[in-house]
Amino acid sequence: MKDEEVDWDIYHRIVCNQANTVSGLEEVCGLSSDIVRASVDRLCYYLLIKEENEQLHPLGIEEMLLSCRIRHSQHLPFTIEDGVIKMKKEE
């Protein structure tokens, strides 16, 4: 299976609440832990899901857009770390 197909399958299983942990996804999808972990990491990087306390959650459109803006803007005075909005430290 291509990475994109794995990501699509895993993303939809998270959104449909069929599994919300890496181990749960391994069982439901029948994939190895390495493949599931790589997919979860890609989905987090692309701002489609977040992982908090080993739980996986899909991001809402507002959170996706805000996270994208924060990641790619150098001039905003704040950042998001672990779901908390924090002021950037002055250099």
How far apart, in Å, are the first and last alpha carbons? 46 Å
Number of domains: 2
Order of helices and strands: HHHEEHEE
Rounded Rg: 15 Å
Taking the sheet with the most strands, its summary is:
2 strands, antiparallel
Structural class assignment: alpha+beta
- Say which CATH homologous superfamily of the largest domain is assigned: Winged helix-like DNA-binding domain superfamily/Winged helix DNA-binding domain
The helix tally amounts to 4
CATH architecture of the largest domain: Orthogonal Bundle
Strand content: 15-25%
Sequence of strands across the biggest β-sheet: 1-2
The CATH topology of the largest domain turns out to be Arc Repressor Mutant, subunit A
Shape: elongated
Level-1 CATH class name of the largest domain: Mainly Alpha
Q: Count the strands?
A: 4
Q: List unreliable stretches of 5+ residues.
A: none
- Helical proportion, percent range: 40-55%
Round the mean pLDDT to the nearest integer and report it. 90
Characteristics:
91 residues; alpha+beta; Arc Repressor Mutant, subunit A; two-stranded antiparallel ribbon; 4 strands
Layout of helices and strands:
Elements: H1 3-15, H2 22-29, H3 33-45, E1 49-52, E2 55-58, H4 61-72, E3 78-81, E4 84-87
Antiparallel strand pairs: 1-2, 3-4
